[in-house]
Amino acid sequence: MNRFTATSLSLAGLYLIQRQKLGDSRGFLTRLFCVEELRTVGWINSIAQLNHTLTIKRGTLRGLHFQHPPHGEMKLVSCLRGEVWDVAVDLRKGSPTFLQWHAEILSEENNRAMLIPRGFAHGFQTLSDNVEMLYCHTEAYRASFEGGVNFHDKKLEISWPLEVTELSPRDQNLPMLEDRFEGLVI
Ligand SMILES: Cc1cn([C@H]2C[C@H](O)[C@@H](COP(=O)(O)OP(=O)(O)O[C@H]3O[C@H](C)C(=O)[C@H](O)[C@H]3O)O2)c(=O)[nH]c1=O
């Protein structure tokens, strides 16, 4: 790798991607995606969908979302403006870290992204106003395969840094994990 540095995190397959900024007197160039470089950390398909979101109010929470098999997806999540507390949760059936979570601060300043494998739920809380996120997805969006877990799930006990200031009605009503949930077969 030469434009990215990948750090494997505590949950197998989850990586923190540090993007290199090539700066000069005009400003900088940074590579947001590179299939050649990211193949080494498991990104084997092309990008099926690219999403851009703006989240206006600091403290807003989006998630926790995933797509059910067979349309589970790998995501590269980047923060292009502002700062977020980015959370990935291991929902993989049989994973030694099943139901464990990991968070990183992604920001315009630190030029970092999270590479999230299939079988994970993802969510974030904004730590600034006017956050813009860019998502590379290996699968197209399929509303009928959307899944979600409540951000407040007692089985996960995720720490969120701020009081939640905004949450979509869908996210407010996301279910808690049932005792019989064995995980996603990826
Ligand atoms: C995800 C998605 C949504 N949509 C439509 C569905 C709704 O009409 C509207 C907003 O969707 P939603 O409220 O699910 O958006 P987010 O809450 O930002 O969801 C995302 O945020 C969490 C943190 C993620 O990790 C996922 O990438 C994604 O689920 O866009 C699309 O048309 N295409 C898409 O790929």
Task: Write up what this structure looks like.
This protein has 186 residues and is mainly β. It has one domain (4-172): Jelly Rolls. It contains two helices and 13 strands. The model has no long low-confidence stretch (mean pLDDT 97). The structure holds dTDP-4-keto-6-deoxyglucose. DTDP-4-keto-6-deoxyglucose is lined by residues 49, 51, 53, 62-63, 65, 122-124, 135, 141, 168, 170. Belongs to the dTDP-4-dehydrorhamnose 3,5-epimerase family. Its EC number is 5.1.3.13. Keywords: Isomerase.
List keywords for this structure.
mainly beta, 4% helix, 186 residues, isomerase, five-stranded antiparallel sheet, globular, Jelly Rolls
How many angstroms does the end-to-end distance come to?
27 Å
What fraction of residues sit in β-strands? 35-45%
The largest β sheet comes out as:
6 strands, antiparallel
- The strands making up the biggest β-sheet line up spatially as 1-2-10-7-12-5
- CATH structural class: Mainly Beta
Mean pLDDT: 97
Structural class: mainly beta
What would you report as the Rg, rounded to the nearest angstrom?
Answer: 16 Å
Number of helices: 2
> CATH homologous superfamily, by name?
Jelly Rolls
CATH fold descriptor: Jelly Rolls
Q: Give the domain tally.
A: 1
Based on Cα principal axes, name the global outline. Answer: globular
Assembly state (oligomeric): single chain
Bound molecules: dTDP-4-keto-6-deoxyglucose
**Low-pLDDT stretches:** none
Number of strands: 13
Helical proportion, percent range: under 10%
